[in-house]
Design goal:
By secondary structure, the chain is of the alpha/beta class. The protein is built from 8 helices and 10 strands. The longest helix has 17 residues. Bound molecules: magnesium ion (MG).
């Protein structure tokens, strides 16, 4: 489904009491980023019998959620470590991978392994993390916009789409490329779930709430304010629930 199909244009909400989400994570950048765009609608707030028109225009009620694939929807590390051992004879221990960079491998070796890991047989063979599909399906059923995003070659798009269909994960948009956060901004994403420290920080800079499954390479960022860090998908669903519920209540 094209993402615009889920978006009403220039609607007006009359919201009693606390009109908009008060959670700091939901405070958005000014509307003049996209004036009059179809992604937003005006909100009138009734308070004490008076109606205040917000100068800003608020996003429509549904949250717009971007979800990374590797090490977010499935446990990518075991595949990567297996390929590293087979191809370069290098042993990589998950628990010891406390940085994003893999110092045991040269940059071109990492690139070769990443490319190999995104061949169709590996993409299609991945097993989703427990609870991931159910959690995302629940969000989608509630009307939230699901953008699946992966730093993988566009050549992997077809097999990735087939994998998402095989595991039964519903989504509205799939993007395979290296400009993940840029694309998230273009889509007016609210929350990015991604294990990469760089993406977590870039998302936060762009006004997007970063969330992740905790891994050794991103645990340090879990102590940062505003970063949602979960032990597993059930925990992630629980931690994001207040944000999503606040948005739904605003409908
Ligand atoms: Mg990832």
């Amino acid at each position: 489904m094209h993402e615009q199909q889920r978006r009403p244009v220039a609607e007006l909400d009359d919201v009693g009491g606390n009109a908009v989400d008060r959670h700091p994570a939901l405070v958005r950048r000014p509307v003049d980023v996209q004036p009059g765009g179809s992604l937003r609608r005006a909100v009138a707030v009734a308070q004490g019998g008076r109606v205040f028109w917000h100068a800003a225009v608020y996003p429509v009620a549904q949250m717009r959620i971007a979800i990374d694939i590797d090490s977010t929807l499935h446990h990518y590390w075991d595949l990567f470590a297996l390929l590293a051992r087979r191809r370069f004879g290098v042993a990589l221990a998950y628990d010891e991978q406390v940085t994003w960079d893999i110092v045991q491998l040269r940059r071109e070796q990492v690139a070769a392994l990443v490319a190999e890991s995104h061949r169709p047989e590996h993409v299609l063979g991945a097993a989703p993390y427990e609870g991931a599909v159910e959690t995302v399906a629940g969000w989608h059923a509630d009307g939230h916009f699901i953008h699946v995003t992966s730093h993988r070659s566009t050549a992997a798009h077809e097999s990735t789409a087939a994998w998402l269909q095989r595991i039964g994960l519903p989504y509205d948009d799939l993007h395979c490329s290296w400009d993940k956060v840029t694309r998230c901004s273009e889509l007016d994403i609210d929350v990015l779930i991604d294990d990469s420290p760089q993406n977590i920080l870039r998302a936060q800079e762009a006004g997007i709430v970063p969330a992740t499954i905790a891994h050794p390479w991103n645990r340090e960022l879990c102590h940062e304010e505003g970063v949602i860090c979960a032990t597993d998908w059930r925990d992630l669903g629980d931690q994001l629930a207040p944000l999503l519920a606040a948005r739904l209540r605003a409908r």
